[in-house]
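Batch manifest, entry 17 of 40.
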Amino acid sequence: MREQLTDEQIAQLTTDFRAADIDDATKAILEFAVKVTTAAPSVTQADLASLRNYGLTDEALFAIVEVVGLFNYVNRIADAFGIELEDRA
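Output type: structure tokens
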């Protein structure tokens, strides 16, 4: 994603992706990632259908959930042990 965005867009993403100058499909993916993070049991078929309308395949949806889950997993382990993760920005 870094190759596709300007430094300004990346900065916007880190502060408020909803106001960032990015395409609607990317915003929808990020909204979905937030929902998976904060309320995974409430994800519905309508949520998935909405993303499919942007051209995402089931494989892409699975990958999104996989990546979000992995990041959440790693962050919870780091938080529980007080580990500071490297900033790669």
